[in-house]
Amino acid sequence: MFQDFDRLIGTKGGIYLCMMAIIGGGPAGGSAAIYTAKAGKKTIIIDSDQGVTKRALLYNHYGVVEITGPDLVAVGLNQAKHFGAEVAETKVTSITKHAEGFTLATENGEFEAKQIILATGFLTDLADSLGLATKPGTEPRVKTIFDVDAAGKTNVEGVWATGTCAGFSVHTIITAGDGAKVAINLISELNGERYVDHDVLK
């Protein structure tokens, strides 16, 4: 199931190592991964295929006349892969913080990451394993969200959250935009200066 993660930071004792682990491969997570991977931060997207976008038909996504949710997600993940991100189809069951970063236990093995972006949509079940602060959600059918600051940081250093699980509207254009915002904030912090990613016509 796993691809060749030796192209990331490497492996240690069968555990895959990376700079950036993004949990959730919907519009928020995929968008974040495009930016982190394009910025040269070795990125893995861990996705359990539980996102609600897979059931959507979209007529309101800016710049696209009509697209299905599954197609939107597939295009976004392919963009992230184009810039070097890897995708693992499995479910994260717990996260443990240690001196060098985090260990993510999944149904198919373990990963170690320096930074984590949570893009888990309606799901906040990882909060307890890491001591993440939560609060009541404000969007319809969203009961609980991660408590984040304006940049997307949670109360645990090195863990960020984006999209619906961070309190933003379920609309894909909004969650994708928030994923990009949080990724840019994270990259800027790692680089020690404000990061800007612009391509220009030749």
From TrEMBL:
Segments forming domain FAD/NAD(P)-binding: 21-125
Keywords: Flavoprotein, Membrane, Oxidoreductase, Transmembrane, Transmembrane helix
TM helices/strands, residue ranges: 14-35
Pfam families the UniProt entry points to: Pyr_redox_2
Gene3D superfamilies on file: FAD/NAD(P)-binding domain
Cited InterPro entries: FAD/NAD-bd_sf (IPR036188), FAD/NAD-binding_dom (IPR023753), Ferredoxin-NADP_redctase_2 (IPR050097)
Single GO MF annotation: oxidoreductase activity
SUPFAM superfamilies membership: FAD/NAD(P)-binding domain
Record bears the keyword Aminoacyl-tRNA synthetase: no
Names of the cofactor(s): FAD
Subunit structure, as described in the record: Homodimer.
PANTHER family reported in the protein's UniProt record: THIOREDOXIN REDUCTASE 1-RELATED-RELATED (PTHR48105)
Designated name of the protein: Pyridine nucleotide-disulfide oxidoreductase
Species this protein is from: Lysinibacillus antri
Lineage: Bacteria, Bacillati, Bacillota, Bacilli, Bacillales
